[in-house]
Amino acid sequence: MTLIIVVILVALVFEYINGLNDTANSIAAVISTKALPPHLAIPLAAVANLAGALTGTAVAKTVASGLVDTSVVTSQVLICALLGAILWNLTTWYFGLPSSSSHALIGGLCGASLATAHNNWNVIIWSQPAADHWWHGKGLLWKVVVPMFTSPACGFLLAFTFMAMLYLVLQHARPHSVNRVFGKLQLISAGSIAFMHGTNDAQKTMGIIALALVAGTKAGVFVGLPHWLSFLQLETHEPQGLQIPIWVKVMCALTMAAGTAVGGWRIIRTLGKKMVRLHPINGFASDTASATIIAVASHYGIPVSTTHNVSAAIMGVGAARRFDAINWTVVERMVWAWILTIPVAATVAYLTVSLFRMIGWIP
């Protein structure tokens, strides 16, 4: 029982730090353009994320199955995976670099599983292509690597095209009128990207907690608990049938919102000021493009990084103005953070398992 509680607490710490990163991405544009003040943008992000999280479980299922052999996943493995992700997320947040919490968690899960399996690489599922469509396949290749490159590229191109069309249509419009109209429209686009973040990216911690509850239920950890604690029991026969309890979704959404309120400003400044100077029309275009890409991915059950999509879309609207409008030095630092996320988080989780094995906590 103690281990389950530790998993939940560490998962909530990860979700809080996720608020410093991912949720800040979803409201970076609307705050940077002053279309919405922070004290209103944060509740908007929290409510929209919660609503989105209630509509699907794509990422939760991917975390729960399809990446590693679930027979080696224990509470200790989940704790080590989360610690690897937390350390990397804190590092990138400190330097104001948007990075993918999903990829950090995936890297941590792979590293912890590999160490637990005593370097048996077969524990990591690399590729299990589906017979019908590639997006139905399992493994790191289809669920992580391919979307890692294709979704930001699509986000950049869509935002570039959308912004170019808006410039063409509104070239004779008065700037004041454009800012006023798109300042209002940005409220919709910001809500949309936060909602889509919930449908896809916000479910990773929910999946981890649900996995811990399922493992505890199967192990009989909750037998004999008072009736009012019966909500902790979560039964499932297959990982694909994993259902995320409402209380887990609400708890994770509120924790994520708290993280955004306390420390999301570093990421917001990077995306909305340091990389590209945004106006309401730019924020609307980038948020709309990001939300569209994530919506398509969620429809086909493809987990993608909100961080990568939002960042690429902002680059796209900046490039539509002119390529030198983008601070390419900041972009280079961001890309290196994207590349290093999975291997660094995996290494930290691997070393954590090794350390815990030395002190006898993990066999």
Note down, in words, how this protein is organized:
This protein has 363 residues and is mainly α. It has one domain (2-357). Helix content is 71%, strand content 0%. It is built from 13 helices and no strands. The protein has helices at residues 2-32, 38-53, 58-64, 75-94, 101-116, 140-169, 175-200, 204-218, 246-263, 265-275, 280-299, 306-321, 328-358. α1 (2-32) crosses α2 and α1 packs across α9.
Layout of secondary structure:
Blueprint: H1 2-32, H2 38-53, H3 58-64, H4 75-94, H5 101-116, H6 140-169, H7 175-200, H8 204-218, H9 246-263, H10 265-275, H11 280-299, H12 306-321, H13 328-358
Helix pairs in contact: 1-2, 1-4, 1-7, 1-8, 1-9, 1-10, 1-11, 1-12, 2-7, 2-9, 3-8, 4-5, 4-13, 5-13, 6-11, 6-12, 7-11, 11-12
Shape: globular
* Beta fraction: under 5%
Order of helices and strands: HHHHHHHHHHHHH
**Mean pLDDT reading:** 84
Domains counted in the coordinates: how many? 1
Please tag this protein with its features.
mainly alpha, 0% strand, 71% helix, 363 residues
Q: What's the quick description here?
A:
The chain is an all-alpha fold and 363 residues long. It is built from 13 helices and no strands.
